[in-house]
Specification:
The chain has 160 residues and is an alpha/beta fold. It has one domain: 3-Layer(aba) Sandwich (Rossmann fold), CATH 3.40.50.2300. It has a five-stranded parallel β-sheet with strand order 2-1-3-4-5, with helices on both faces. β4, α5 and β5 form a beta-alpha-beta unit. The chain is globular.
Length: 160
Amino acid sequence: MHRAKRRTEFNLKHELMKNRDRIKLFLVDDDAMYLKLLEIEFTEYADFDIRTFATGELCLAGLSWNPDIIILDYYLNGVDETAMNGIETLDKIKEVNPDFPVIILSSQDKIDVAVDCMHHQATDYVVKSETAFTRLKQIIINILRYQKMEKMLSWYMERH
């Protein structure tokens, strides 16, 4: 099992390295330390093209960059009380492009919060913990696999 997991991680790294277009990852969190930690973790994990944002408003302003995946904090108004929270930001992201995969990251370990995020079309929900990065990696692997399968199916359907 452990070997299979390592092989999966290697395959993702290999796919990222051979792909000329690096995976564009948005990290959105008002906690500067946590944001930097995530950026470092993802940079060490694979060759992502990472953009970080301290507010939902800044994230929205950067959506023209067309991120492949967005990791969005649930509470985004810790520094600026008037800033949009994660759910408001998620709703605005989905208005711009409903296909952007958005993973909500939160310190809230409550099922009703997770369900609320899913009702707002979040791709997944991860609780900030010591296993959060491992879980985020697995979700990203699954998103990329799904996108690859969609492209292959689309290519196949166009030819038949």
